[in-house]
TrEMBL record:
The keyword Hydrolase applies. Residues 9-99 form the Acylphosphatase-like domain. SUPFAM superfamilies: Acylphosphatase/BLUF domain-like. This is Acylphosphatase.
Length: 99
């Protein structure tokens, strides 16, 4: 099985009720399940931000999860994606929660 297509990197910010609802923990879980690397953290303005890297199809799955699913008790109003680009190699070895 080959790695599907080019590697992508994208930054994200999730708006809504996304703090105090285990959002980071579920994001880390989902990222590991899907097989993407990067990070997630809470911001001081009540959003969750981070970066996702991996094969394009896996990054797209993660983008969809960050836009529509989230943690069970979260409410996602919107998710902004920025700096989407193709990269030659992954900059992270895993997916982590930052503080």
């Amino acid at each position: 099985m080959s790695t599907a297509g080019p590697l992508k990197s994208v930054d994200y910010e999730v708006f809504g009720r996304v703090q105090g609802v285990c959002f980071r923990m579920y994001t880390e879980d989902e990222a590991r399940k899907i097989g993407v690397v990067g990070w997630v953290k809470n911001t001081s303005k009540g959003t969750v931000t981070g970066q996702v890297q991996g094969p394009e199809d896996k990054v797209n799955s993660m983008k969809s999860w960050l836009s529509k699913v989230g943690s069970p008790s979260s409410r996602i109003d919107r998710t902004n994606f920025s700096n989407e680009k193709t990269i030659s190699k992954l900059e992270y070895s895993n997916f982590s929660i930052r503080y």
